[in-house]
Structure formats: C-alpha cells, structure tokens
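Margin note: ligand = magnesium ion.
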Amino acid sequence: MGNCVNSPARVDNRESSFGGSSRISPKASQPSRLSNLIIPSYSNRSFTSLLSTHTPRSEGELLPSPASKAFTFNELKTATRNFKDNNLIGEGGFGYVYKGWIGKQSLSPSKPGSGMVVAVKKLKSEGFQGHKEWLNEVHYLGRLHHMNLVKLIGYCLEGEKRLLVYEYMPKGSLENHLFRRSSDPIPWNTRMKVAISAARGLAFLHEAKVIYRDFKASNILLNVEFNAKLSDFGLAKAGPTGDRTHVTTQVMGTQGYAAPEYIATGRLTAKSDVYSFGVVLLELLSGRPTVDKTKVGVEQNLVDWAIPYLVDRRKVFRIMDTKLGGRYPHKEACAAANIALRCLNTEAKLRPEMSDVLSTLQQLETSTKKGSTPTGVMSPSPHMSENHMVRDVSTLKV
Ligand SMILES: Nc1ncnc2c1ncn2[C@@H]1O[C@H](COP(=O)(O)OP(=O)(O)OP(=O)(O)O)[C@@H](O)[C@H]1O
Ligand SMILES: [Mg+2]
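Resulting structure:
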C-alpha cells in the first residue's frame, strides 16, 4: 500500500468544462506504490476477497479478464472511422471518447449503424499516471459486473497506445444534463431515479470491498431510461482488510467531491465515497456544480453555501434547482436534503453506509409515488437554527 500520509497534492489544470472542479493528483515526482496483482480464475462471489487484497502493478501481470476482449489498435481505428471528429463524444482529463461500432457477437469492427455502438476512450499520452489508471480500470471493471456499473467490453494495449472500449451510454453524463445550458431540465422523479441507481452501484462496490474514489457527476453515465451507471475506475482501490479501518493512499480524486478528512490525511475509507455521494445528491437537488468559479464568495463552493439551508427544513427550498420550477414534492425534497446532509458529515464515522442511503432513497421514491411521507426518514428538527450549521449532524436522526 502507498505510505503517503500528508502527501502534498497538486491540482491539475485539467478542469471540468462546467463549474471548475479539478483533478487532484499526486506529485509527479512521487514514486507510485502499488501492491501485487494476482488474478486467478474466479467464480461468483470469490472476486470480493480477490479485489480486496490486490491491485494491478503492471500490464505484464495483467491476466486477461474472462469478460473483456483485447482489441488491436487497428480494430478500434476502423470501429471509430479513424477516430473521426464527428464521432468524438467527450473529453476528460486522461483521454478522448469516441463513438464506434462493432459486431454484437464477433466484436469486430462494423459499419456505422450496424452491430452495436460502443464508446472508445483513447488515452492521451500522459505518462505513468495515465497508464496506472488504465491498468486499474481494466482490473476492476473487467471483473465487477453490475447493472449500475458501465460495462467494459475490452481494451487495447499496443506500445504507447492505451484504449478502453465501453458499452455506449446514449444519454451521456449526468454532468452534461445538470449543468449544460442547452440541456432540458431533469424532472424530480428522474433525479431520484439517477440518485437511486448511482447509490445502488456504489453500495455494490462497497459490498465488494472496493472504494471508488472518483464519484462525481461526470462519471455517472445514463442510459435511455436515465438509469445511472458508474464509469472510470482508474482511481478505485481495494478497501481495508482485517482489523484495519482505512487504507493510506496518495491523495487523488476531484476537488469539490473528495472528502475533507481524506484530503487532509490520505486515509481512505468507504465513507469518503459516501461524502462524494452527498455532494452529487446536492448537485441533483440544486442544479449547481460543486465548484463554480463564476460565482463569488461562499457560493463558489456548493457544500459551504448549502449547509445552512440544509439544516433548517424551512429553508431547504432555497437550495432547490430553480429549473424545477417548484415541481417537486416538498417533504421528499426535505428528506433527500437530509440524506445529503448526513453524507456530508465532517465526521466520517457518522456518515451512513451506502446500503442505508440506498434504502432510504428507495423509501422516498415509494412514498413520492404513493404521495405520502416516507417512514423512517425525518427531517432536521424545525427549531434548529442556522447557528447549528456545523457539518456535525450527529444529533440528527434519520
Ligand atoms: N461509455 C460512454 N458512453 C457515452 N458517453 C461517454 C462514455 N464514457 C464517457 N462518455 C462521455 O465522455 C465524457 C468524458 O469522459 P471521461 O471519463 O474521459 O472524462 P470525465 O469523467 O469528464 O473527466 P475525468 O477525466 O476527470 O474523469 C463524459 O463526460 C461523457 O460525456
Ligand atoms: Mg469520467
């Protein structure tokens, strides 16, 4: 494991196209420390223990995943029509994403419009960090299969070239829908559906003892029905084993989403993901990005700005996305805001488990459909004043 307590983090200048949240990466000079990779064939649930103890070290040790195909560069060049600009669907810190077409059974390149559509991510040549993340992605996503994780169809490794082939997610990222000016506003029910499906993906990872470390709106991809799937496992990390409470790592992630105690100490737990989930839930409720450099003062940071409103149920409406035009169930919105507040607790131990978050959100959805208040969810006490805005909500019961 890395031994980088208090390791200084540098913030990359790769910024999100919205808001302004930046990637947090280790110092370039810092040697990477990754543990061994041993991947025996596995069956059913045995991957749980497997993933909890091993992380890939080099491609030489990367054994083929039973489910993903090794593509040649030429196959992917053909599938994307030579990485044509028209087929470019996105760009992130580490690469460009293109639309491509391959045969459903053969998985060999096919003509546009025939076979199945895939998303091909081509890594920019960015040295070792990009390579490490590529390797991590193949390792985890090639082995973890769940309806709320994006499917990794295959990968390509040829000389300096590194590519990843995913199932195509027709509605793109949550970030685009929430913050792109030209996007239609997402209705309340759809926001809840996205929150629930993303929570299910994260709860599954935690059950498999994997810490995701990069939960954010741009990594939540949407299918035609707005079901969410998590993508980008470049920073995923095996959780602590035995009596250990945390794993110590170089601080990495995205500003505005990473948990404060993790940034301060490098100590990573599943509760760091829970914090990030709270941030995304807040983005879903408010329609505001976690970091917004176009705003001034406290409004630049969504969490700092929203907390005083979250702790007082009479004020929760003030953080709600104006694009919703008031069309949301008020009690359920208060309850959802309360879940966000609990996830954002500065005391990591007091944050809920993702399985609890999931079941509370599901109860909320059911109660919205029935038109009643959910059982088991209580909003903060109405007499709580703004002075109690400290993010220690341990006194609040949900
Ligand atoms: N499987 C996919 N299907 C459809 N669109 C995708 C897929 N994967 C990525 N995209 C699109 O490409 C964009 C860029 O994705 P990418 O993961 O490279 O970067 P990012 O998540 O925006 O930023 P970062 O590099 O900080 O993680 C996404 O926001 C999304 O719009
Ligand atoms: Mg991404």
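The CA atoms of residues 212 and 236 lie 4 Å apart.
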